[in-house]
Amino acid sequence: MSVEPGQRYLRRGAKAFIRLPVLRSAHVLRRKPLGAAGLAVMLALVVLALFADQIATHDPLGQDIDNRLRAPGSDFFFGTDSFGRDTFSRVVHGARVSLYVGVVSVAIAVAAGAVLGVASAYFGGKLDLLFQRFVDGLMAFPTLVLALVLAAALGAAANNVVLAIIIAVTPQTARLTRSSALSVRQEMYIDAAEAMGAQPWRVIVLHMLPNALTPVVVLMPVLLEQAIIAEAAMSFLGLGVPPPEPSWGRMLQEGTDGYLEAAPWLTYFPALALTLTVFSASMIGDALRDILDPRFASRSAFRPAEVGRVR
Amino acid sequence: MPTLLLASVVIFLIMRAVPGDVALVVLGGSGESTHDVEQIERVREELGLNDPLVVQYGDWVWSLVNGDFGGRSLESRESIASIVGRQFPVTLLLTFYAIILSVVVSIPLGVIAAKTQDRWPDYLIRAVSVAGQSVPTFVLALLVLLGLVVVIEWSPPIIYADPWDDPIRHARIVFLPTVVLAVGLGAALLRITRGAMLEVLGQDFIRTARSKGLGERVVLIRHGLRVALLPVLTVSGLQVGALLGGAVVLESIFGLPGIGRGMVQAVTSRDYPVVQALAMLIVFLVLAINFFTDVLYVFIDPRISYRS
Lengths: 311, 308
What we know:
heterodimer, A: about 300 residues, mainly alpha, B: about 300 residues, about 75% helix, globular
């Protein structure tokens, strides 16, 4: 063993990830037009989120008493709200909130679920049993209900929303990783590695993780969709990202609370943004599943990714 | 049943992990200085907060079993049992209507789509299904409200009525949330029915049935759909959690006084005994519906039996 093995494994892991078929196949575009469209929308959202300050025409928080409740027009593309804040700029900045919550919570939930799931499968026995029963308990909750309860316990703040969603989603990733790790554990190369005297963590990180991750990768867009809807729903209910940060969910709440008739643009632009985001994530998920997991090609009846999705 | 117990542990632990002193929340104080130590101590004693964690948990589970649901609301002092009695039927009815509606509409549509594969009815049905799955339930609800208010200037009644008191008013207020809630589940069911039917229709026994000279309707429904219903059932069981998650938000939007809205209000006011009890009820409902789908398997597939 060299001095810094961890780093080397990390690099190898990264290489294995890049070699995933989906990332190198250029003909995906032709075979999966809807998936490609979803990817394009998602990339556009990422650009919106990253360059929100440059793209927004106004300050998303800036109040302008003279321009309250303006209809959409050339000055205010999507109109203004009751404080005179520019809806277009707020929608653009809302992409940042949505993607931040979505990406961070899914990334951490996948990482945590992967480690917990693989460890549970590797060690088996009582630890596995205990852990999986706990996961059962968590999975009995609708994601949104669990996130709401957690939000109640943690208090309203952007990062508490992230934490709540992580805890609500991790059981799914842990369960999925475990089941695929269990089948990987049967493989000859695991026995070979152990016979060569490999430490448990080496077997887990180097051999089991990369081979057990495909189903989780397939699930990631669906989880992203879940997380983004959960954040929007929580913010809509006043239990998510606190004001004045522009979140699509809270914009919807503000727009429908008394302004439905007078200023419908306050509702339909955030609704459109949210729907487009969810739609693109679900299209990416469908395409990814068909490509990586041919057993569940689009004709197939059963769609495991559907499990427990928040609506 | 064991899952229910585990879920109760989860809920209990989460609520106990609430930062800050619950006794202070109960007294409604902003800082410790506003209440004397004695008062705080009394509230703690009353809520059993001084007991060991295991004892508190035992007390709570026992109160769930004997129908006490953990005492009273911190906010309104109303007993939780009466809150549950008032709110639970609303949610139960709403989810029941939504499940019935989505099954009645989407399974026939799924069969039609499979029958007319790659022709215009199929495309139309698939497009509707994809759209239905892409719009989050609560966004759809808002858009429907917006559409109604702006286009035909109609808004649904605000005050809820029980079906046994005033069936017409009940129907009018429950109609929209039912439809909106059914869309998400229905779109998923539709898609799976179509997929399962396509799979089944390609199989030999269907050709045999046709060659025996059976009518198309008999082939499709008695031979095809019966087999295709199994995956449909599996997925609908899995969708129930999502359905109830949607119901929570919908109740808040449409002002239905069910446990979903009750929970959101309790979460907002940090009324933790109520949050605990209602969250448990939602889990109970999920598991009960799942149990029910498991029982349905036996009726659809004679090969499955729970007697071993």
